[in-house]
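Below is how a single chain appears once it has passed through the pipeline. First comes the sequence as given, then the structure the pipeline wrote out for it. We keep one example in the README because the format questions we get most often are answered faster by looking than by reading.
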Amino acid sequence: MYYSLLNIYKKPQSLQFFHGIRAPVLVNLFTPSATTKNQPTQNINMDDNTPDSLTLHSSDSPGLVLISKPLEGHNYGQWSRSMRIALSAKKKLGFIDRTITPPASTDTKFVVWQRCNDMVLSWILQSLNPDIASSVLYCTNASMVWNDLKDRYSQSNDSRIFQIR
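Resulting structure:
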């Protein structure tokens, strides 16, 4: 459904407080456009496994840094969460959690999958300390790298409890 901008600002009947400041309230930001009132609504599939997951945008490049703090080893939890958020935003989370599986090497989509997998691999490598990056540089699958890093640097709750004591 398309929306048209209408009544961004209305003269308020009364002023309301917002973070300690007395200000008018914005109302009626969007209303359906007159041309789309009788059109049926469309369901948008936002699933990670849609063909969009295999699409690379012009802004995607191998040197792109998705997160600001690289994995140093001791910060795995923060790094992992930041990377998952960034990859989810780019619709590439399925490459590390294995929900986007590689097609057969004879399938015409394999080349497209491989290109996206390589891009995710490069983003992961860009987010690692150079010493850690060199240890996974020759892995060919993003999920293999992800699981290797998880096995090496994540800690179970038992070891965290032991460290606190």
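The beta strands are 3-5, 16-18, 21-23, 30-32.

See the next section for the split statistics.
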